[in-house]
Amino acid sequence: MWLICCLQVEIADCMQTLFRGNSLASKIMAYCFKIYGHGYLRELLNGLVTDMFIAAEKHGLSYEVDPARCVCTRLTC
Fold this sequence. Notes:
mainly alpha; 60% helix; elongated
């Protein structure tokens, strides 16, 4: 990946065109961030989100932001 990024810098016309969304380097970087970031975020947030939903279910709360879609009587902010 380092080689691809270096080549992208060498062939760029100007600084503003570096790593645009349609370049190979930016597509590879986005794919890597998606693969590695997904596991990291899942590990980081899984316990917190699970605890939030367990507490909401236990206390009859809802995290729905649209009151028209909420079936509960209490909303959390």
